[in-house]
Write a structure and sequence with these properties.
Elements lengths: L26 H11 L1 E4 L4 H18 L4 E4 L7 E7 L3 H5 L3 H6 L5 E7 L4 E7 L2 H16 L8 E4 L5 E5 L19 E2 L2 E2 L4 H11 L5 E3 L18 H12 L4 E6 L3 H4 L11 H17 L5 E4 L16 H12 L5 E5 L19 H6 L10 E6 L23 E6 L15 H8 L12 H5 L10 E5 L15 H12 L5 H13 L3 H21 L37 E2 L16 H8 L9 H4 L2 E2 L10 H24 L7 H33 L12
Helix pairs in contact: 2-5, 9-10, 14-15, 15-16, 16-19, 19-20
Bound molecules: 4-O-methyl-beta-D-glucopyranuronic acid.
4-O-methyl-beta-D-glucopyranuronic acid binds next to loops.
Length: about 700
């Protein structure tokens, strides 16, 4: 569903987001930088290094108006220019210290400046093809923000091994939970023939350090089941080749029952030898087309998708069977933990959906093969505006894990509302699970350092589509950017990450940077205030999930209830209630169990609370609800005002597009405010202390 029509924009037109290179107007900087960029030397005439050199050349041409020569050389005859080379090359190594060489990891890179009387050289060095492309974009971006060359020195390695974007793209071109147009990969049940946009997408992703892409929806239905067959593999191999140039591996979501659908077998039982053989053959075929194929993403026994439970087998049986077929080629199985009873009876108060993933997977800890990774949504429910972190993180020490974040804004305003997610993600990543004592942060679990995992990392559900600006809301580009940057280095501050995005996207005007930064950093807080604060969640319209509906999910089968009556609201998930808190390590169990200690922004997630309960501020719960909704809706005006102050300083098309969305945000925030306030007023009969208008 795309809420805003793009008037008169041809399908094949689009901007390049933070890679839209603008001319540097600073003559001083240009003068300083010219000697370092007027030549580009490549030492190995390798296809990938050459591509990196071409990227750099194109960027320099656009930014500085000079066209560097690309020269292939094998000996030391250069004095001025940028030298792109691979670790191990003799000429390159002359410039490096031993420790420097040791510090460059597989996907990492080094940027170092040599400035002497006779030499003005920027060295860009990596161990691998992917490292060089990441380093190239980093160098380009450093030049764009006018970094001081005399102090430019960077050695970077990604913290997490897997940094993967998940597309929920269907083969008819639609995107499940997509708010930015249609798929750039598929249309009319075909793979799209033009690779230009895919290539530009690969460039965007490489510039934020992504190394994997799953191009089809985890709900694998119809024609998509056949993507793993020669019917589609020739075209997928072209997509894979395009991504490969930018250090990105292709993955495919599969249907667990494929042996039945495609192979004509009578079963998909993971322990059946014929099923194994069928997968083995299928995987062999895939690798004959895509030699560096990343692996499978699997949504099994989840929301009507088939899985091992159908045959009385465990998720470990299912995942391991696939893992064995992929192992000889270095492929992985990314197995989703999003397993719960989606046919719950709302009258059943014993079953708690929040407990489901842990109940299904915790008993299997230690049973998964090494090339299986469990992909876990950040919270126990489903990407609500706020949830506690899933207790599976730090709950399965012997199982590789990835955290799944939703870049697309399903429950966070669908790219109509401005809702920057970096602030929320950072809080999640900094959460200390205490699984190995103090300091057992989520970020250290998913980057592999806490348990020494080889396969682990970040998965982000894509927010892009065919729209002119890729993400519908122009400022939603910051969410994609931030996902990549946090996956690369979760220790970075989001202020820093967001600011870098603004500088590269909008330039360095002080007011522009200041205002957009404020808008981004405050937007999730504001959205939370006028929608569902205190960890409440789920008060959305069923199906499409946009806009308020306080009981939209109250009598449904999805296990998503707040059980509000006239006295209290929320589910008691403490050890005395559904027992959900028992899934956490004792440190958190005690805190979440205690209504006085429970972080207030999660109060209604963990507790059933009377409306007259007093919060730490002294306010009653009901008064907090009213205040939060009035204030939140009001604060949208600040977002609008901050944007309005930038009129004339921002490209007009972008300015107008964002203005239009902010206007809709305001209208819809008012709708949220009034519907939720009226709901609570009608339930409780308690008036607003401040006498503001609540519709009776
Ligand atoms: C792809 O399906 C999605 C579905 O659209 C979304 O509403 C649900 O909550 O999560 C599912 C999942 O994550 O599998």
């Amino acid at each position: 569903m795309e809420h805003v029509k793009q008037k008169g924009v041809p399908q094949n037109q689009y901007t390049m987001c933070w890679l839209d290179y603008k001319r540097c107007e600073d003559e001083e900087y240009l003068k300083k930088v010219i000697p370092f960029i007027s030549n580009i030397f490549i030492l190995d005439n390798n296809y990938y290094f050459r591509n990196a050199a071409l990227e750099l050349k194109e960027a320099i041409k656009n930014i500085f108006g000079v066209e560097p020569n690309i020269q292939t050389t094998s000996y030391l005859d250069f004095h001025h220019g940028t030298l792109i080379g691979k670790l191990g090359n003799e000429v390159i190594e002359k410039f490096l210290e031993k420790e420097e060489k040791e510090q460059i990891g597989n996907e990492g890179f080094l940027i170092k400046v040599v400035a002497t009387k006779t030499q003005n050289i920027i060295l860009l060095v990596a161990k691998t093809e992917s490292g060089i492309i990441y380093g190239t974009f980093e160098l380009i971006n450093r030049l764009r923000v006018k970094s001081n060359l005399s102090s430019l020195y960077i050695i970077e390695n990604p913290k997490a091994p897997l940094r993967v974007i998940n597309h929920w793209d269907n083969m008819d071109g639609s995107i499940e939970r997509g708010y930015a147009g249609s798929s750039i990969f598929f249309s009319n049940n075909r793979v799209k023939r033009s690779l230009k946009r895919v290539r530009d997408y690969a460039r965007l992703l490489a510039s934020i350090g992504i190394n994997g892409v799953v191009i089809n929806n985890v709900n694998v239905r119809g024609k998509a089941i056949w993507l793993i067959t020669p019917k589609y593999l020739p075209e997928l191999s072209e997509i894979a080749e395009t991504f490969r140039l930018y250090g990105i591996k292709l993955y495919i979501s599969i249907n667990f029952a494929s042996p039945i659908y495609i192979g004509g077998l009578s079963t998909a039982d993971p322990l059946d030898p014929d099923v194994f053989k069928w997968w083995q053959e299928t995987v062999k075929t895939i690798y004959s087309y895509i030699p560096d194929f990343g692996g499978f993403l699997v949504k099994a026994d989840s929301e009507f998708n088939p899985g091992p439970y159908v045959y009385g087998r465990s998720h470990a049986d299912g995942a391991n069977m696939l893992a064995r077929t992929l192992l000889p080629y270095g492929g992985v199985v990314i197995w989703r933990a999003f397993v719960y009873n989606c046919l719950q009876d709302w009258r059943d108060t014993k079953t708690d959906r929040a407990k489901a993933a842990y109940e299904n997977f915790k008993p299997l800890d230690g049973e998964f093969l090494d090339n299986v990774v469990l992909q876990i949504k950040y919270g126990p429910m489903d990407f609500q505006v706020r949830e506690p972190v899933s207790p599976l993180f730090g709950g399965m020490e012997k199982t590789n894990q990835m955290i799944e974040l939703q870049i697309t804004q399903e429950y966070t305003g669908q790219q109509i509302h401005l809702c920057y997610l970096g602030t929320l993600w950072k809080e999640i990543l900094e959460f200390d699970t205490y699984c190995k004592g103090k300091g057992s942060y989520i970020k250290r679990i998913v980057d592999g350092s806490l348990f020494g995992w080889k396969y682990c990392g970040f998965a982000g559900v894509s927010n892009i589509g065919s729209s002119i600006n890729w993400t519908g809301h122009d400022l939603a580009q910051a969410n994609l950017w931030t996902f990549g940057k946090l996956a690369w280095n979760p220790d970075r501050s989001v202020e820093d990450i967001a600011k870098e995005w603004i500088l590269l996207t909008f330039g360095d005007d002080k007011k522009v940077v200041e205002n957009i930064l404020w808008m981004l950093l405050n937007s999730h807080r504001i959205y939370e205030k006028y929608t569902t604060p205190l960890g409440l969640g789920w008060m959305v319209n069923p199906g499409h999930h946009y806009g308020p509906n306080p009981e939209g999910y109250e009598y449904s089968k999805w296990g998503t209830y707040h059980r509000a009556d006239t006295k209290a609201i929320g589910v008691d998930r403490t050890s005395k209630g559904t027992g959900y808190t028992l899934q956490y390590h004792p440190h958190w169990q005690k805190i979440f169990d205690d209504i006085e200690k429970c972080p207030e922004n999660l109060l209604l997630f963990f507790h059933r609370v009377p409306y007259t309960y007093r919060l730490k501020s002294g306010k009653t719960l009901i008064q907090f609800m009213y205040d939060s909704h009035f204030e939140g809706a009001e604060e949208v005006d600040v977002l609008i005002q901050k944007w309005e102050e930038l009129r004339g300083k921002i490209d007009e098309d972008i300015f107008n597009r964002v203005s239009e969305r902010l206007k809709m945000q305001k209208e819809h925030a008012i709708e949220w405010r009034d519907v939720i306030n009226t709901y609570f007023y009608r339930k409780t009969g308690i008036p607003d202390e401040k006498g503001r208008l609540i519709y009776p």
